[in-house]
Every structure is written in structure tokens, then in C-alpha cells.
Amino acid sequence: MGASYPFAGIVDQTAMKRALLVNAVNPDVNGVLLRGERGTAKSTAVRALTEVLPKIEAVADCPYGCPPDDRDRMCSECRERHDAGADLPIERRRMRVVDLPLNASEDRVVGSIDLREAVQSGEARFEPGILAEANRNVLYVDEVNLLDDHIVDVLLDAAAMGENIVEREGVSFRHPAEFVLVGTMNPEEGGLRPQLLDRFDIVVDVTASDDPAERVEIAERREAFDADSEAFRAAYADEQRALRERVRAARERIERVQMPEERQHEASYEALRQRAHGMRADIAVSRIARAIAALDGEDEVTEAHVAEAQYFAFPHRVEGVAEMTFGEAALSTGSDEESDEGDDDESDPEGDDSADQRGGGIPIAEGEESYTVDRTAIDPEKDRTMRSALARRTPSRVDVRSGRYVRSRIQEEVDDVAIDATLRAAAPNQRLRGREDSDGLAIESRDLRQKLRERTARALVVFVVDASGSVMSGRQMMETKRGLLSLIEDAYRARNRVAVVVFRGESAFTLVEPTRNHRQAREAVSRLTVGGNTPLAHGLVEAYRLVEREKRRDQDLYPLVVVLSDGQSNVEYREGGDAKADAFRAAALFDEDDIPSVFVDTGHKIDTTPDEIWTERKARRMKRKRHERNRDFAAAMGGEYLPLIDLPRDVDLEALDLEEGTA
Amino acid sequence: MTRRDGSNGENDRPQSMTDHDTTDQASTADEAASTGRTFPFTAIVDQAEMKRALVLNAVNPDVGGVLIRGERGTAKSTAVRALVEVLPEIEAVADCPYGCPPDDHDRMCSDCRERHDADEDLPVETRPMRVVDLPLNASEDRVVGSIDLERAVQAGEREFEPGILAEANRNVLYVDEVNLLDDHIVDVLLDAAAMGENIVEREGVSFRHPSEFILVGTMNPEEGDLRPQLLDRFGLVVDVEGVTEVDDRVEISRRRAAFEADPDAFRIEYADEQATLREDIVAARERLDDVALDDTIARLIAGMNIELDVDGHRGDITLRRAARTLAAFEGEDEVTARTVRHVARMALEHRLQRLPFEEEDQDVMSVFHDVRRELDLED
Known about the structure:
The structure holds 2 protein chains of 2 kinds.
Chain A: H1 14-25, E1 32-36, H2 42-49, E2 55-59, H3 76-83, E3 90-94, E4 97-99, H4 106-110, E5 112-113, H5 115-121, E6 126-127, H6 130-134, E7 137-142, H7 149-161, E8 163-168, E9 171-176, E10 179-185, H8 194-199, E11 202-206, H9 212-227, H10 229-235, H11 237-253, H12 261-273, H13 280-295, H14 303-313, H15 349-359, H16 380-393, E12 404-409, H17 419-426, E13 450-454, E14 459-466, H18 474-493, E15 497-504, E16 507-515, H19 518-526, H20 536-553, E17 558-565, H21 579-592, E18 597-601, H22 616-637, E19 640-643, E20 659-660
Parallel strand pairs in A: 1-10, 1-11, 4-7, 7-10, 14-15, 14-17, 17-18, 18-19
Antiparallel strand pairs in A: 2-3, 5-6, 8-9, 12-13, 15-16, 19-20
Chain B: H1 28-35, H2 48-59, E1 66-70, H3 76-86, E2 90-93, H4 110-117, E3 124-127, E4 131-133, H5 140-144, E5 146-147, H6 149-155, E6 160-161, H7 164-167, E7 171-175, H8 183-195, E8 197-202, E9 205-210, E10 213-219, H9 228-233, E11 236-240, H10 246-261, H11 263-269, H12 271-288, H13 295-307, H14 314-329, H15 337-348, H16 364-374
Parallel strand pairs in B: 1-10, 1-11, 4-7, 7-10
Antiparallel strand pairs in B: 2-3, 5-6, 8-9
């Protein structure tokens, strides 16, 4: 609110600032995504950008701010006037940053009908929305990874077409919508849809400073600004002016900046070498490089410019360096495969391995999980079938009015009225219905519109992992982890949340709280240490409580509990209890509450505990008994039974013939 | 007291498998509501850390609010409601639905700003701050505000009808059981808390208004954790436990009974202490700007945050603010290592990245001492 922090006052964060300036200089660069932990000035920087943006010429009386001399990019009205030879009034105005708030509803984003006009004259006139405001400006989406899917679709369409096409509520309209998309996000909150990620030409990973002196400087500047923003801004006024001038000059210069053929070759060669997807990377690199050259006051693009451009443009486009392995910076153009810049400790496989070895766990190097799982058991089709099956067994929820309201719909029975959409539907018909201005609106039942609410969570897959000593036999743990990692990856693709409950020793705990951040889950699993007894009952109870908690928060939650264990429970839940009986009783909790589950038997045919103590016959009999017990267990849970060994490399769980647990 | 989902907390667990021991210190908040009297802040027994965290926010709302984690019946709600009584009164534009400050141009709503710029004489009233509750099943439009239905239907005009975030401006926003909130409501709260502003772009309305508040949230950690993003937005976090000293428990019961029997008399008993606290808070506010924080202390704070691997810079900023505020409240004119020690856990405990099964060799206090010793600072 009020004054904004000056761009020139941001400490360090060179890459981030550079990336933003590049966009200010060359609007053909399709935007920046700032990714990073919280509290790293991402939002501050974007808002600060406003004061550094250059001025542009726009048609003064046009709501879309059309360019006065570029016929192709004009709105239909401006074009008509232009073609008719009219003198369009021009004004010079500063580009600005337009906010797209997370909870914006679709009608505000794309625009809709002008309500008052409709009531007064019965005309359905278009009222511009945020996309209209954003034309020729910067559109800023904070926490872009949390943006509602429908709005994302709208954004993607507009960004692709350069136009916003509206067909809704009696309005049919189109207008130019070219904008620089700037997004910020914290990857902990979940990833970005690949199509959306691809829309950003530049991705910058932002981290906090490790240098004490720098941190102190940052904190002190923040405090000074908070104490007296005017004085602070005054202190940076000169630098801001200089910056603005630099941007302005760069914008002028960029027209003449040359990109020599060798540079273009280098860029394309590198893109190919890094196996970048499509042509976007090449194009982005050349646009960015020219902007950088212009910013630096040069007329020709040099190797250094190209290298910097690649640093910005490649990370999210290059195979194997997708957003899932966030933290690995861009690749240098030298002979080494990986750059040292910006290495995130968390993604360091060496560190993981040694930690695990100390704890006695079996490490898995990052490169090993190469499962490509296409679907989990939570395929949308199956989702629907299972939910209706569930519905038959549980009382249906009457009041599902939770969830964000994003758009409306016409339907037969309306029980959750979308007031705004209803009014818009009714408005143009007032005259026809014989109403004058002061009479109030006449609303008929066919005007009623239903609110479509976004459910915050779709499916939640809770993995219950046996980390006891009995799974320590090398192969079993290895296979378990592999299977688990690929299932998590699968959940990621299906955009489901995951949680991980672990049990070992004498208790169970939640290793990963329900999250969309699958990277976090994968990492936690990779570092899991094993040992001790098998408190299976505890693990199930912990999982059950977690599911119940989540169901309280979201009544429409569709949970799936996946237990990975060999079933050798040996810890009683209460003193004087019996381990096996307790485990079965805990299993029954899921059956009673109709919580879908899968028991993945990690011991079946994988268990290689030495059989020397038994004869071969007895060993076979033991293993068969265990197999049967585990199948009974799955039945007690009311769920499916699946031996881990049967989880093939390229699994399509949907197509698998899952054995029903038999009584 | 009913919970967010309407249950009363007793029957929704598998009886044989789980066990909860709840100590109901006081439903004093409910009592207070019915009698119309507030239990005095200074009469709350023990719970020093929680009281300190609340007082720090009273002195300096920029500290960023408090999250109180604890089981039921630990006086969380009582303390928050008691807090507003010791908060200084504020000056607000009398006829503004957002209660804008009459002389702070930056923090005004657009209407007040226009009038102010036009040199209009804004009607001012002095009023106490209050606790605005975020109700159990608040819908997004109630929180954010929405379209004024009557105007819309009557005249086809879309006017903004303020919601809870508007009411909360310049007050305390109390969110009980914050971990059970719908995610998207949490998002809305976050946005407002971060920006000091509520930006509405929905249901045919495009509007923004100031929304600065002291955010106080409570939660029972047994019922699930908070998203890290929301956790980070709270300046301070305090973990409260049930009272275990028998003497204290006896005293709590005694005081509660006395309050219920005759709230006015009870309050008179504590009138002096309340007045003193109020004065101390006012004095602290005045002193705050002059509290010095020298470079070595600054490095202590920075060093701690780096060592604890806290995300971003909010940990530094919050710890600095909390330390300076505490120093001001204690009548000191500079921050010492000791001051930092007293607020370190509150400010950083919830910003640590911990995987529960890993050995915890990192905790706030031990890191504090490590860095302090490195810098040769005395405690």
C-alpha cells in the first residue's frame, strides 16, 4: 500500500533484476518466472519494476491503449478510425504492472457485460477486464503455481493469440491482449503446469543470501524503508533516474542491435546439444541476448551476451532439467556438463548418499529412478467410478459450498446461486420485461446461474511406508524405494497431493505432510533410513488420523492409502496386545470408513532372508503363508492387494490385474 | 466449544486406538462473551511466553502477528481478547468503513485519500482496537467482501460491500484453528497480510482497500500442521502447554471462579496492573525508534539465520524487530545478546526446515550460543 520500494535499492539479486530489466527493454521476450523460497524480495522486485518501465505511445481514449501506428495490433475500433484516416489522439504513458490476484474470478479476468448499460438500455456492452488492462503492459501473477486451472487456460490462450476472445453471457467480443507475463512462485507449494512453464522465456531461481554482511544490509535497508519510505526513496532517486534512462535508451537501441550469424549458430547449436524442447529456446535466447546487449549499451551481440541469455532461457526447457529438479542452474556453454552456479544443496546426490549410509539406509542416486509410470490407480475415470461407488455406501454430502468460486454455469437445478452472473443474465432483458430504471431488476428462473467452485484438493495419496529392519534386505528396500518414487512421480503427473507416513521401531510418524510438492516427498523418501521393529498398527493409525484430518478440511477429498510393507508386524499397539491382531484391527478402520486402499506387498518373492535355518519345503510354506496373510490384510482394509514385484517398470496401474484380497 | 467442522471433538476418533488428554483451563472467553466483560490480561496465570509474544505485537504490530500452538483450554482465546484492552486507542476517520488513520496518507483508502488531498476536514474519532473474529465457516465473499446485492438488484450498480478483511483493518484479526481453514481462504489472508491491502477482483467487483491487522492465529498441532507458506507469515510462534504445576492450576481455578462470580470486582483487583501495562506499552512505542541495534548484534542475528538455514530473509527481519521491540518494552536503549535470546525461539522456531525423523542437532538456542560465542558476545 502506498509507496513502493525502489528497484535500485534491492540488494544483490543480480540475475533477478537483470531478467526483469530485459523484459522492460524487449517486450517480445515472453516474461519472467521468479522461483524461490519465500522472503527473497521476488514480489518486491516486480512491483519495484513499475517505476523503471519505459514510456510508450498509446491511443489516448482507447481502453486497450492501442499502439497508434501499428495497425495489426490495434483493437477493432482503433483500426476503423485509423483506416478512415482519423487523427488518433496520442499520449505518452508509462508501462505499468497490472495485478492478477489469485482469487480473481473469470469474469473479472476476461471481462463481461456492462451491467448498468444493460439495465438502462438493454444493450449487451462489453466491459473490459484485467486482460484488457494488461494489454501492452506487464501482467503480474504472484504465486502463479496456485492459479486456478481455468484462469491459467484463459491466460495461455490470450498469450498465444495475443488476443482475448470473449464469448459469454450474451457478449461476443475480442480485443488485443499482449502482455509481458511475470510470475513468482515458491516451488514448495507445488509445480507449474508444463504448458504454463513453457510460456515463460526466462526462469530465475532466487535464493537468500549466505553472506552475513549482505543479510545485515538487506535487513537494515528494509527497516529504513519501513521507517520512512519517502526519505529512503529520495536517497535512491538518482539511481532510479539513471536506471530509467538506461532502460529507455536500451529500448531505442534494440532496433539496431545486430545478432551476428555465428552467435545465432552458437545459440542453436547449444540448444540442440542440451536437447531443448522445440524452437522456443533458440528464439528466446536471441531475443534476450539482444536485450542484454542493448542494456549494456552495445550494438552487437557477443558471446557473453549469448551465454547470459542461455542462463536465463534454458533451465526450464532443457530435457532432464525440468522443474522437478529445480535448483540446478543453467548449463554453461563450456565443455562441462553442469554449472556450479546456484547449486542447491538439496539436490546434491552425494550428500544424500553419505547421510543414508551413516544411518544404515540404502541410498538411491538421483539418476536411478527411471520409471515412467503413466497412471496411478487414481485415473479420473476410475476416480468417478470409485466415488460413485463410495457414494452408494456413504451418505452424500448435501452442503458442498466450499471451495473458491471461479465461474458460473447454466444448469437445470441451481442451488448455489452465482449472483453476479445471474444479474448479468437478467440485466439486458429488463426493458423487455417492462422495467424502468428505478424498479429494481426482474429476475426470472432462467437467469439463474450456478456457482462452479474449485475444489482445493483432488486426490490425496497417502503412502504408508514400512521402514523396519525386516525390509533392510538390500533388494527389498531398493525395490520399495523405487516403487515408491515412481508412484509419487505418477501422483505428480496426475496433479494429486501426496503424503508419506513412516513406521519403524516402536512408532509411526508423518514424514511428509499432504503436499503438492512431490520433489520434497521424493527427497524425503530418498533419505529414509531403516531399522528396528515393525509397528504396522501404529503406521495405519497414523495414516488413518491423517486422512480424517484432511477430510475435515475438505469434505470432497478423495483419499487413497497405499501401504508398502511385508506385513511382518511385531509390535503390539498397546501393552498386552498382540501385534498381528492389532494390525488387523487398525486395518479395519479403513474398511469401516470406506477409505480406498492398496496393500503393496514388498516381501512377496522379493524377500531374500536367508533360508538356511529352514528346509526348502518349510521355507516355501512360510512364504506362502505370509503371502496369504498379506492378502487377508488387504481384504481387512477393504482394499486391493498388489505384490511389489508385479509393479513393472512402465506400469499402467489401471490396466493391471489387481488381485482382490480374499477373505 | 464446537469445532470448525461442527463436531465437539470427542467422538470422531477411533476410541480404542487413540487417546486425548485435554485440560480445559478456561472457557473463560465464552464466559466473558456472555457477561460482556473481559478477563484482565494481567490476571492470566503463567504462560509468560505467550503473553510476551502478544505484548510485543501490541507495542509494534510490524512484528507480524502470533501463532499460538497448543492443546485446547490453554487460555489462548482468553489472552487474545484480553490483549485488546491493553492496546492503545487509535484515531480513525469516523465515517469510513475501513477506519482509516486521519493523517497517514499512504495507508488511507481511496475515498479518504481523495478527501484528504482536497484538504477536507476529516471527522476523527478515538476508538479502542478490537478483536475481529474469522468465523468457523466463513465463505470467501464474507472474508473478502463482495457485491452489494441490494444496490445491484435495485439499480444495476455494482458497489463493493466490505467483508471481514475490511473490518479487520487497524484491528486484531483472530483466526481460531487456523490449520483447519480452507486453503483458498488462507491464500486470501496471506495476500492481505503481505500487502496490507485487500485486492478484490471477482464477482463483478474490482476494488481495493487497506487491510492491515495484527494476525493472531491459534491451532492445536495434533490436528494437523499449517502450510509452510502460512506459517512463515506469522512473525512469532509460541507453543503453549497445559499447566502442570498443581499450585498454578489451583490459582487458575480460583481466579476463574472469582471472575465468574463478580467480574466487575475481579477486574477492579487488577485495575492497577492493567494500567501499568498499558502505560508500559505506550512508553515502549515511543521509545522504539530510538533503540539501537549495533553491527555485532546484527551479525549475530544474520549468523543464526544462516546457520539454521531459514528460508529467505524474513527470519532476520522479524528477529531484529522483535528484539528491538522487547528492548523498548524493557526500557533499554539498545539490543543486547540477552534480548535476542529472549525472542529467538519465538521468531525462528517455525521457520526451521526439519524432517521429523532426522536427528535434530540444530535447535534455535544452541545455534544462538554457538554464533554468540563466535562473535565473542556476552549473554
